[in-house]
Amino acid sequence: MMNMAVREGTLDVQMNVTASPCGVTLSVVPTSDEFGGDDIIGPDCLVDSTLVGLYAVNESGLIILNSTTTENGQPISTSGLYIANCNDNSGNRTGAKLVVIRKYM
After folding, report:
1. Domains in the chain, ordered, with CATH?
2. Which of 30, 36, 37, 46 has the CB geometry, 3.0–4.6 Å to 80, for a possible disulfide?
3. Exposure class string for 54-70: b at 16+ Cβ within 10 A, else e
4. Residue 105 CA: distances (Å) to CA of 7, 95, 102
5. Angle at CA 70, nearest 5°, toward 64 and 73?
6. Can you give the pTM of this predicted structure?
7. Are 30 and 80 spatial neighbours (Cβ–Cβ below 8 Å)?
8. Per-residue model confidence as pLDDT tens digits over 60-74
9. How far apart are CA 98 and CA 72, in angstroms?
């Protein structure tokens, strides 16, 4: 995973993970709720049903369907800290930030 900055409204942003997406649990701490955290993909390799409008998964990792800075009718924004925890009980984890730029001058 790598830190990225994109313009608001950018579609299909790929967050690659080195392991199979089914080998990790992916979660996000969105900027719209920095005291919370949401699991995106669990050990079953499925996107949480409340977040299917924001995320998808493929063999390379997580796809952020629409880059947002606010909830915009969705449960969370997509800008924030993304965390991948390995499901092999090794304790290995990695993270990356997605910065969404709202206004370009």
Report:
1. 4-101 (2.60.40.10)
2. 30
3. bbebeeebbbbbbbbbb
4. 12, 29, 10
5. 85
6. 0.88
7. yes
8. 889 999 998 886 778
9. 17
